[in-house]
Amino acid sequence: MTESFVDPQQLIIGGERRFAVQVERLLGLLRYTDIVNIDGSGDVGGDLLGTIAGQQWVFQAKWQKKGSVPANAVDEVSAAMDHYRADRGVVVTNVRPSRDAISRAQVLARTGQRIDFWNGVDLQQLWEQAPCHPARIRLRSYQSDAVAALVDDLDTEGRALLVLATGLGKTVVGGEVIAHHLSLDSEADILVVAHTKDLVAQLERAMWRHLPKTVKTQVLTGDEKPKDLRGVTFATVASALNVALAGYRPSLVMIDETHHVGEDGQYGRLLGELSEVSQFGVTATPWRGDSYDIENHFGAASYKLGIGDGMRLGYLAQVDYRLFLDNIDWEVVKDVSHRSYSMKELNTRLFLPQRDEAIVDELAEAWRSTLDPRAIVFCQTKEHAERMAELLRRSPEWRRAQAVHDGLKIRERQLRLLDFRSGRVPILTAVDILNEGVDVPDVNIICFARVTHSRRIFVQQLGRGLRLREGKHKVIALDFVSDLRRVAALLNLRRQTNAEEIEVISHVPQPHITFSNAKVESLLEQWILDAADLETANDDVRLQFIDPDLPAS
User: Which superfamily is assigned to 314-543 in CATH?
Assistant: First the structure.
């Protein structure tokens, strides 16, 4: 496919909604870095930010069916330059600037503020000048092995599965598998499916670095319904199912966050409809809430690397994990061997409520001991997240603390995440909104504020802090435990990272998991040894423990 994605006709077809997205992709090809899409209400006149040659640029994307761009577009860019402290500004349009707009830019130039225009002809020329392929990605050795394993299983079985812990680059591996497929057939149509619109949009952006500029991409959701699905299509499952039922047949399907695939439902129908098509899935957490095993569809994992192994090999940040268990009700402990409690009943009785103020005190101590601290506090509910954010804002260092949850409008969530990535907001409180598909590599403190344990969600949330960056070597995890399954998960992780199953890199420090109360640690270790598979037990599973030999109080 040799047609430019900024071809004038393509820009007309894509409309206003897609224009800023296409410009964003072009900036990546032109080697701009730190590109952020800020398009939306409250963007202060800017749609895109990017950095090149040490200078910050702000772009205003103005799409029109006809006519020319008015002078107020220049004023909007000027305001955005002031707000974002940008060095350069650009009005990007598929048409042409008006004479008034050009005159206004000339006036501002005399004050030292340079604002350029990129019109439709300029965009096409920039696309032609850009390299055909984005900058080459240097894969880690395990990523190369994973790509080879997936390609081999796709070739022989038509199905493949990748299980890679958060922070190890499952999207990078998936992108390289797609790139390999396109290297064999540049005209191939490929479908990438995710379960939310936000993830679909993020995946499209993440995949650009793996695709030649000649391959078109588009988003297919309930809001966006392109007629031309050539190239790589990123879709929600319902929209993908609709076009598959209408006859769309890609040559390769990638399912992101594959743990959402069940035996029934829309994923099952989609994969069944495309049963003759090669399919692969990627996930960090292969466990589902029901008994369905995703290997039933995709086969045994083609490649697998978990959190424990990732830390032992030095590919993930090391964890200083601190469990706070001073809230045990010892009267319940004495009674537990004589009663058959369900998991939910035991958690309710065993763990006394902890005050939010006590959590903040421990968080402050970790904050003071961390260089350039950035934190996420995971909370029980949206109300709890808002309450914790308000409590944090009482401290001067956290006066900009914000809550992020699905009760906010999408644009407001995006702005808060942008402020967090930029460092303007140093700490976020959240519920489950940051579990999947959000890349926040600067996090070095994770706090679990009395959250209910789910093996899948725990791995996702801990993974928010495990990505490495320059100068970051460890993440501090503060866990105010309210669920026995969480203790089981951590003891399993400690055993994993102390095992001898794989080579340990000699210079990499191993994870440090500590209990605030040694008496509690001894008790719970004994209990957990007595209860097989406790980490994944359901709330209604009834537990029977032997009478522990308790140390003296």
Answer: P-loop containing nucleotide triphosphate hydrolases (3.40.50.300)
Q: How far is CA 453 from the centre of its chain?
A: 20
Structure-block tokens of residue 88: 């350069």
Q: What is the pLDDT of residue 390?
A: 96
Q: What are phi and psi of 88, to 5 degrees?
A: -135, 150
Q: Which helix (H) or strand (E) covers residue 345, if one does?
A: helix 343-350
pLDDT of residue 130: 96
- CB crowding 134-165: b at 16 or more within 10 Å, else e: beeeeeeebbeebbebbbebbeeeebbbbbbb
pLDDT exceeds 70 at position 104:
yes
Q: Taking a C-beta distance cutoff of 8 angstroms, is the pair 445, 415 a contact?
A: no
Token digits for 229?
């699905």
Give tens-digit pLDDT for 185-236: 999 999 999 988 888 998 999 999 999 999 999 999 999 999 999 999 999 9
Is 3.40.50.300 the CATH number for 141-305? yes
Q: CATH code for 8-129?
A: 3.40.1350.10
What pTM was computed for the model?
0.77
